[in-house]
Amino acid sequence: MIKTMFKVSVVALTITVGATAIPVNAMSNDEVLESIELGNFELSEEQREALNLADEIEQLLIDNELMGEKKNELRAAVNDSNTAKLRSGNFIEGILDSDEGLSASEISRVYKIGVDATNTAEEYYKSDSQLRDAYRHFIWNFNAANDKKLGKSKTRTATINHEWGLLLIDDAVDYYNNSFKKYVRLGMIGSDAMNAAFSDTINELPKMKKNKIKSLSSFKDTATKGNIMDWNNNYYGIYYSYMSDVDQAFKQAKPFLILAESKVSSSDYKKVYEGGFWK
Fold first, then answer.
1. 29: in domain
2. Is residue 107 part of a domain?
3. Taking the CB of residue 214, how many other CB atoms lie within 10 A of it?
């Protein structure tokens, strides 16, 4: 799908008529219903690749203990496992990373360094959740930028997408539900409709990111104070990665960091937006 993995693009379900695969949107509803009733339908190649990518990202999350039985209790509270995945910001993050050129091993490495940063921050700042989060994002970016297999550019892509993974959850779930209803109206049922809708949603995620923000005004409407704080601190974690000691770097960067969501101001929104810290 994406450069090193797969290439994400939105395509329609295909119906097999004889030996020819015809996109659903090239047929009338009556023809589609008749073909589906006969069982002559299949996912397109791009849709199958989207499902393969989803499985791969899910496995990376499980391997890094970011998803699994203990991490994914929400599976019991939603309609199906596809919805549960789309409610995981880390899952969406991985899909976007893949679309923007990161390989599976690189995505996994970013996840691991992020988990390590979380554990370190919890040891350092047990009683201050806001300072803990600021430190976590700073050292995550600092350490990933200094990782020979990642570097600054790939770290920047991945940690920006970490915030996008959270921002796109509602959009992704809504798109999936609407796609599922569309396929049900066409006559598909059960897992067939779920798989078709899920693959379409996976393929749509990069477009959702691209089209979500068009101006500073829409940026302010979309990004939370938490997003602004994290994007800002991500930027400086990478910027100060030239230093040899991460704690000294954090100390030197502190005047430029946002150490609590309550400290986020309108000027911070403008700084992050105009600086492109979010894209």
1. no
2. yes
3. 10
User: Both tokens of residue 70?
Assistant: 């203990």
pTM listed for this prediction:
0.83
Domain assignment of residue 4, yes or no = no
Give pLDDT tens digits for 121-175: 999 999 999 999 999 999 999 999 999 999 999 999 999 999 999 999 999 999 9
CA–CA gap between residue 144 and residue 22 (Å, rounded): 45
148, 271, 202: which is closest to 11 by C-alpha?
Answer: 202
CA of 230: how far to CAs of 27, 125, 136, 147, in Å? 47, 17, 9, 20
**Count of other CB atoms within 10 angstroms of residue 215:** 9
Roughly what angle, to the nearest 10 degrees, separates helices 151-167 and 190-212?
Answer: 120
Q: Give the total residue count for the chain.
A: 279
The sign of the CA dihedral 203, 61, 176, 228 is negative
Domain range enclosing 185: 45-274
Tokens of 134: 């600021």
**CA–CA distance, 65 with 16 (Å, rounded to integer):** 40
Buried/exposed code over 48-59 (b: 16+ C-beta within 10 A; e: otherwise): ebbbebbebbbe
Angstrom distances, CA of residue 163 to CA of 84, 94, 96 = 18, 11, 11
pLDDT at 21: 41
